[in-house]
Amino acid sequence: MSANLAALLYLVAGVLFILALRGLSSPETARRGNYLGMAGMAVAVGTTLLVMELDGFGLALIGGAVVIGGAIGAVIARRIPMTAMPQLVAGFHSLVGLCAVLVAAAYLYEPHAFHAGPAVEGVRYSFGTASLIELSIGAAIGAITFSGSVIAFMKLQGLMRSAPIVFKGQHWLNLAIGVAIAVFVIFLTASGGQALTAFWIICFLSLILGVLLIVPIGGADMPVVVSMLNSYSGWAAAALGFTLENTALLITGALVGSSGAILSYIMCKGMNRSFVSVILGGFGADGGEAAAGADIDRTVKQGSSDDAAFIMKNAGKVIIVPGYGMAVAQAQHALKELGELLKAEGVDVSYAIHPVAGRMPGHMNVLLAEANVPYDEVFELEDINSEFSTADVAFVIGANDVTNPAAEDDPSSPIYGMPVLQVWKAKTVMFVKRSLGSGYAGIENPLFFRDNTLMLLGDAKKMTESIVKGMD
Amino acid sequence: MEAVDPFIFRLAIFVLAIFIGYYVVWSVTPALHTPLMSVTNAISSVIIVGALLAAGTAAIDAGSQFGRYAGALAVMLASINIFGGFLVTQRMLAMYKKKEKPAAKKPEGEGQ
């Protein structure tokens, strides 16, 4: 195969990837988009195999690796529960990062493999300055993505406390490591790619930096972190696309990089936080102390599942607001059943989703889809917020801060300015919560103390199930 | 005038692709943001092309097989991502359904 034909085929792969993302503009076209993505991958892999000088051992090595990796991937994809999607995505990001580091290392150690031409015996390949810089940037971002995603995975999986870890001088330390990485990149480049130790130091420092960047970020900011790491994995791929002179890799890297960046932006806007303040971390500390300090003796109206069932059955319109608590309790199936029963009673049921509900972008939508809730009953914040004033019941399950009116009317509140679902405009607000504790930000929700609020204390799934029983 | 460095052409592709990504991703419906992440994950594993080159080509110096094995490991990791990413996206997308007509209602599994 000629080099030109190969380059054209890589371009085809890149275009197929663009179409794959384009398909996601609506659920109807999304499935086809996913197939186009698979086709793009097949084109890219096939082209590479045809254009390279593959020897027998290499074929066996590749075959074995693909079979093992593919089998692991397929099993994970089949078995993973939908609630675990955030940690799965974080885990996958870490693999892309590690892959980038390994490819960069292989390029340094066996450069001739990437140029399909024999090197001169005994003489090390001479690298271009630009490709050395691209390669070390790719390796550095890859290593940051890897270790950062491992930390994010551990926090999401509960292997590590999700509370932020902050210490004095943290930002200065990060800055110093960043500068040191830059120095070693220059050193590696100046040596013409011969200083292999410098390469490994770059990788090592970047691994540390990745950990340091993610540990100070708290659990509730995870949607931003996951999107950010998504973006990083894209930039790492793009940097190596420059080194390998591969269009498919360049286009994909740019797509993924900007995709992750846009998602991070949307998540930050959903929390009214600047990207910089999320990265600097420290928010989302366990707000236990803050809430205890407030200690206001106001009364809440606590209700039973039978009360809730009675009110909802006689309502004309119910809006359900799911949050992370629903995911934790796996209450989506019970919730769907409740929705169906209400619809059978002639109640108008819809679902309202805040952009940062859950632990990753779109988390709640996937869980509702899993429970067979039709996607045209599920609405985003800006589409449904005006509907609450006409609703009889706002049923808030496992969400808190995203419904806090303080974000709109209390300038002293830490979440002031954050867009919230205006559930308080409904005639009755029901909160399914495990306790009266505050949300992740440690902020009291004044809604709990309003006259038209009914608190349903208990596990989200059990409470929903008993409401369903109470409907008869 | 001297010839333009090929690097500039690659930079042009890269910059234009960022713009394409920008507009394409803004058009993705928020309901599909999770599948968006899993599919971008799968396609960014196209980095496997580099891993294939490293794993499949014989080393010049028979004593140093490091590049090869690093490449093979990378092929395996990228394969986990490619298969896992596309399949889990497919599984998720299969779950997104429109409102069904009340008559034709049959319970269905998780899309797989």
From TrEMBL, chain A:
Gene Ontology molecular function: any one: NADP binding
Q: Where is the signal peptide?
A: none
EC number(s) per entry: 7.1.1.1
**Domain NADP transhydrogenase beta-like span(s) in chain numbering:** 8-469
Keyword Kinase in annotation: no
Please give, as recorded in its UniProt entry, the membrane topology of this protein. Answer: Multi-pass membrane protein
| Alphabetical list of InterPro entries matching this protein | DHS-like_NAD/FAD-binding_dom, NADH_DH_b, PNTB-like
Q: Where in the cell is it found?
A: Cell inner membrane
Chief localization class? membrane
The protein in question is named: NAD(P) transhydrogenase subunit beta
Q: Which organism is it from?
A: Marinicauda pacifica
UniProtKB/TrEMBL annotation, chain B:
**Mind telling me which residue stretches traverse the membrane in this protein?**
6-26, 38-60, 66-89
Does the record carry Membrane as a key word? yes
Which GO terms of the molecular function aspect are on file? NADP binding; proton-translocating NAD(P)+ transhydrogenase activity
What keywords would UniProt list here? Cell inner membrane, Cell membrane, Membrane, NAD, NADP, Translocase, Transmembrane, Transmembrane helix
For this chain's UniProt record, which GO biological process terms are given?
NADPH regeneration
Membrane topology, as annotated: Multi-pass membrane protein
Q: Report the locations given in the UniProt record.
A: Cell inner membrane
Major localization listed first in the record, in broad terms? membrane
| Primary enzyme class | translocase
Q: Where is the NAD(P) transhydrogenase alpha subunit C-terminal domain?
A: 11-98
GO CC, any one term: plasma membrane
Task performed by this protein? The transhydrogenation between NADH and NADP is coupled to respiration and ATP hydrolysis and functions as a proton pump across the membrane.
Name the record gives this protein:
proton-translocating NAD(P)(+) transhydrogenase
